[in-house]
Design brief:
The mean pLDDT is about 90. Among the domains are: about 140 residues, 3-Layer(aba) Sandwich (Rossmann fold), CATH 3.40.50; about 100 residues, GMP Synthetase, Chain A, domain 3 (2-Layer Sandwich). It is about 35% helix and about 25% strand. It is globular and about 70 Å long. The strands form eight sheets. Strands 16, 17, 18, 20, 21 and 22 form a six-stranded antiparallel beta sheet that branches. A five-stranded mixed beta sheet has the order 11-12-13-14-15. The chain has a four-stranded parallel beta sheet with strand order 4-3-5-6, with helices on both faces. It has 15 helices and 27 strands. The protein is of the alpha/beta class.
């Protein structure tokens, strides 16, 4: 039986640089050698880990990938955990996944050592591994490869189980759609316990023989310096980062701004994901850099499913059409398949990249599928061949006055107001409307805005049913550890 395809492909690029930093470079051969050592250390006297769970707590970079490949080559299931999580969050992931080993680098081993001791979980420090190479087991792609925890809105996080075949399908569809090649060079500053970083960046790059420049976090000045030097061919980020980049470019001296913009202009592809990209940010970015951001749609359970076209229209506010090998359909609340455009329905997805199951949650797994189609819980409409996301069925769809309103659309419209810097829109119980559209806004420095003025401004932009019924101005929106607005906390502002 041949070795895992991702390892076989690395061998075909063995002399290429896989990771680059100001201090050193590491080739694909280095990743192969180091991952073999990690695999040997994990196995010890065993021949195969037989899908034992190994938690991964390693700083983004070559060591992370060597550890990931080492787990897989030894026959284990990788459980990536958040570097900045709290101890109770780590404990939940370790106990729920029944991890037997935590693989950490020197920078993080000490942080989790006491928890591992208390739980009786073996802790391995990557910097202390001295195992010599040994014969490694043959791993079929049908084996389970990863458990990735996704936050639920009503319960504890669920472990999303993907096989090696699932991961390969998720990578291959993006490599084909976005035309990855060995000549590509991309920065990596997103966390590696999410699909965006694991699959879209690291997975696609290393499948293609490309080069990754890893940062431990989003280091604005360092990244802009590299952009100025035309270091990258691709760039992938979340909307918040594009907002920060716009602010940095607008405040930069003219000559400096021109040099950085020139670096962005020469990139062949720039992608936005993990959250809805406001149309205003999309247009601002194009006006400044000339680049049309490519927005896509995916989830932990399915990888990426829908994308704007690499060659073709990149429509603000839309996530595009199904990716190669992915089937998408809409289903309305009455259980009917939506075939017409402009009619909302829940997005359901089928394809080889769709996850295998939730870890130890057979009931949740069964509830998430409809005759083999994964139920995403997201509402969308099809408009001129492209899908547009309306929001989560339980959070972003506001039922007001007999209408189903998209909180995301209202947020995008409000962000066009010159005084509104950030906002979150939710529905709150209301005797008249059923749910009142409620806006929480952060204003520009020293700005003031009252509800009457906002309603007047909304008249030509939002229908009467979408005009915010309540308004609260705060200095900072409630956010989670990823910097995203937490709508339950927004609701709490209204007591």
């Amino acid at each position: 039986m041949p070795e895992l395809p991702i390892i076989a492909r690395a061998r075909s690029h063995s002399s290429h640089v896989a990771f680059e930093s100001p201090s050193c470079t590491q080739t694909y051969q280095h990743l192969l050698d180091e991952s073999a050592r990690v695999a040997a250390a994990l196995l010890g006297h065993a021949d195969d880990l037989n899908e034992a769970r190994v938690a991964l707590l390693v700083t983004p970079g070559a060591d992370y990938v060597a550890a990931q490949w080492g787990i897989w080559r030894a026959g284990g299931i990788k459980v990536p955990i958040c570097l900045s999580a709290t101890e109770p969050e780590w404990e939940y992931a370790l106990t729920d996944s029944q991890a037997t080993v935590v693989l950490a680098d020197a920078a993080n081993a000490g942080k989790i050592a006491s928890l591992c001791e208390r739980l009786g979980v073996r802790l391995m420090d990557l910097s202390c591994i001295s195992a010599s190479a040994k014969s490694l087991p043959e791993i079929d792609v049908s084996r389970r490869a990863m458990i990735l925890y996704t936050s639920g809105t009503t319960s504890k996080p669920k472990g999303v189980v993907t096989t090696h075949a699932n991961i390969q399908a998720q990578i291959e569809c993006l490599v084909q759609a976005w035309e990855w090649s060995a000549s590509d060079h991309i920065p990596m500053f997103l966390p590696l316990h999410h699909v965006h970083g694991i699959i879209n960046i690291i997975g696609c790059a290393l499948w293609s023989g490309a080069c990754v420049e890893a940062f431990s976090r989003f280091e604005l000045n360092a990244i802009l310096d590299r952009v100025r030097s035309h270091a990258y061919t691709l760039f992938m980020a979340v909307p918040t980062i594009y907002v920060k980049l716009i602010q940095a470019l607008e405040s930069a001296p003219e000559t400096d701004r021109a040099a950085i913009v020139a670096g962005f202009k020469t990139m062949r592809l720039m992608v936005s994901g993990s959250a809805a990209l406001p149309a205003s940010v999309h247009e601002q970015w194009t006006a400044i850099t000339g680049q049309r951001l490519l927005e896509r749609y995916g989830m932990t359970e399915i990888g990426m499913a829908i994308s704007n076209l690499y060659h073709g229209e990149r429509r603000p506010g839309a996530v595009g059409a199904p990716l190669p090998g992915v089937e998408v359909r809409l289903k309305n609340e009455g259980g009917e398949i939506v075939t017409a455009e402009d009619v909302p329905g829940e997005i359901q997805v089928r394809g080889p990249g769709v996850f295998a199951a939730y870890w130890n949650r057979p009931e949740a797994t069964a509830e998430s599928f409809d005759d083999g189609w994964f139920r995403t819980g997201d509402m969308a409409v099809l408009e001129r061949g492209y899908y547009r996301i309306m929001g989560r069925l339980s959070v972003d769809i506001i039922k007001s006055g007999g209408y189903k309103l998209s909180a995301l659309e209202i947020e995008a419209s409000l962000l066009e107001h010159p005084l509104i810097r950030e906002c979150a829109v939710i529905g709150l119980p209301d005797d008249t409307w059923g749910e009142a559209v409620t806006a929480v806004c952060v204003l520009a420095d020293n700005a003031t805005l009252d509800l009457k003025t906002l309603r007047e401004w909304c008249k030509d932009r939002l229908s009467v049913y979408k005009v915010p019924q309540r308004l609260k101005v705060v200095s900072e929106l409630p956010r989670n550890a990823m910097g995203k607005v937490t709508k339950p906390a927004v609701k709490a502002l209204f007591g």
